[in-house]
Each structure stands twice: as structure tokens, then as C-alpha cells.
Amino acid sequence: MIRIRWFAGLLASAALTGCAAIGSSGPVVTASLSSSHCGFTAEGLTLVSSESDWQQLQQDRVGALPPWPARDDRSMLVISMGERPTGGYSIEMRDARIRDELLVIDVLVERPGDGMVSQALTTPCAILNVPSEGWDEVVVKDKTDNLFYQKL
Questions:
Q1: Are 35 and 125 within 8 A, CB to CB?
Q2: Is residue 1 part of a domain?
Q3: Count of domains forming the chain
Q4: What is the pLDDT of residues 131-140, one digit of tens each?
Q5: Which of 74, 75, 85 is nearest to 124 (CA)?
Q6: pTM given for the model
Q7: 96: buried, middle or exposed (CB in 10 Å: 19+, 13-18, 0-12)?
Q8: Is residue 19 part of a domain?
């Protein structure tokens, strides 16, 4: 009998947690891809708001991009470091939040250290699944709060 009560309590707790997650405040930003070979040769931000534009962007790339979001209220944001002359470069989302119509994205940016590096062109980027509404400006900054990119 104790096991049944414990299991029922566990199920109730899981159900309440699920409801809290669904009803949680604020949209969620998720990382869809972080790669050193994205194929975006220009540095900067690209916001894609439609599946047809995403498919067109996919056709222009060598590497595969993540699938378009299943929900209508989502867009894809590409943060590209542009073409780099060696390996050792990367960018990865650490945190994201929306405050007063401003989407703030904290990233970890890696650059090669001194010494030997691979002599290969790379095109590092991070691709994020972002809400389509609730913000009209985006700021991308690194761990020392240096502004990495800003787009109006």
C-alpha cells in the first residue's frame, strides 16, 4: 500500500511539474545547432521567419541545417562568426531572455590559442529556435558582457 501511495504521489508531482512548464512565463529560446562548419561566410545575425525562406537558405549551404520548428510562433536565428582561416573557433548559446522587447543572448565564444591549429577554413555558427513575437531587438554578448552583435 505504501508503494502505491508513493507511486501515486510521484505521478501527481510529475503532472503538476508538466503543467507548470507549459504555463511558465516567458518564451523559451533553444539551441538547434552549434557547428564549426555552417557555411555562413558573412559575420552577423540572420533572422528567418518563414519555412520557405529557411528552405532557400538550406539550398545555399553545404552543411545540413536543423529542421524548421513545428510551431507557427517560432523563428530561427543564425549567429554567424563568418569565415575563419583555421579551426578552433566556435560559438555556443549559454543563456537567453527577453526583457522589455529586447532578446538578450549570452554566448560562449572560443578562439584558437597560440600554437598549432588546423589550416582549414571554418564557418562557425549557432542556430537558435526563438519566439517570433515578444521582442523587436536582439543583443548577443559574451561572458564578459562585450557586445558581440546587435540588430534592430
A1: yes
A2: no
A3: 1
A4: 999 999 999 9
A5: 85
A6: 0.78
A7: buried
A8: no
